[in-house]
Amino acid sequence: MREFVAQLAAKKLAPKTVLEVSIAVRQIVASVVDQNGDELFPRKWNSDFIDAPVVEKQNQPSVTSEQIEQAIAKASEADAALYVLLASSGLRIGEALALRIGPSETSSYFSEAAVTVHTSLWRRREQEPKTNSAFRTLELPGPVAKRIAEFANGRSGFLFGNGLPPSESAFRDRLSDTGIQGFHAFRRFRTTWLRKNRVQEDLIRWWLCHSAGSITDGYSKLSEDIEYRREVSEKVGIGFNVTSRVR
Question: What's this model's pTM, rounded to 2 decimal places?
Answer without folding.
Answer: 0.74
